[in-house]
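Problem 12. The chain below contains 330 residues. Write out its predicted structure in token notation.
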Amino acid sequence: MQQLLCWKSRFRDSWAMSDKRKASTSRRWLLFGGWVLLCSLLFLRPLTSLVRLSLTQDDMSHLMVMPFLVAGLLFIERHSIVRSFCPDIALGSLFVVLALGLVATARIHGGSLLSDLQLSLDILALLVLCIAGFALFFGRTATRAACFPLLYLFLMVPPPDFLLYRVIYLLQAGSADITGALFDLLRVPALRQGFVFHLPQLSIAVEKECSGIRSSMALLILALPVVHFGFRRLWKKVAFLVCAMLVMIVKNGIRIVTLTLLAMYVDPSFLFGKLHRQGGIVFFLLGLLLLVPIYLALQVGESPSQLVDSTADNNLPSRDGSQPAEIAQV
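Solution.
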């Protein structure tokens, strides 16, 4: 009987400690939410420009989705993040100083900086401030545990034009190379001049709009959580991301060749119809299907039991309790 009473007392103390910890965790999340709201109000003008940019430019349509994706990741990993926490004023202050340095750079050189680069610096400073608040309220250990969601948030920073144009050019070049290789493989006579292909019945050009930047960005956004949750080894994560980018270029080449062959042998309107303008999702899904065997191959050697055990451990409390023309665009 005495031992039963002892167990009952321990259970009651553990339950009370658990309720106290949950209340403390909820309070910290609320404080962090208030910090993010305050920082957003301080950067209201850059955020307004970011929303306008996201709504008006197709290449930037993903920007406003990122905060919601990061919030979802933080929710999924909330147990492992808050297993133990202790406010870290030093780390939070370091991030605040870094954010202030970014703001000062944007303001001091504002006259010489391009508007897109200044916007990138402002949004980057805002995100660093948000990370500072996370470190301040949850501490170094929790910040390290939330490293992936916090770094994932940086996809919200709009790339400056000079960097974006460089990426688009590389995607153009890759798509043109794949298109030329597929024409050779299918024995389609084509004379290539840069990004222009001259065929017997028509000529096509791989323009910037046909680089596949949107689908490539969408795939990157999807691939990063896959490698985070699906693989434990760094080389497998890197290999899958590299394969994902290569598959997107191959997918874009397949799209160009498919539209060209349909225009040559079926109907020329395929170069300017719905499949050209709105059929990107079809080829994007094709790219995802091509990634499935790569993912399964890289899964060999991964231990599902270890992943399950790791997830289960994360749910346990811590030990301290705490236009048509001569050349068509494809």
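Discussion. DSSP finds 14 helices and four strands in the chain. Students who got a different answer should revisit the alignment rule from Section 12.3.
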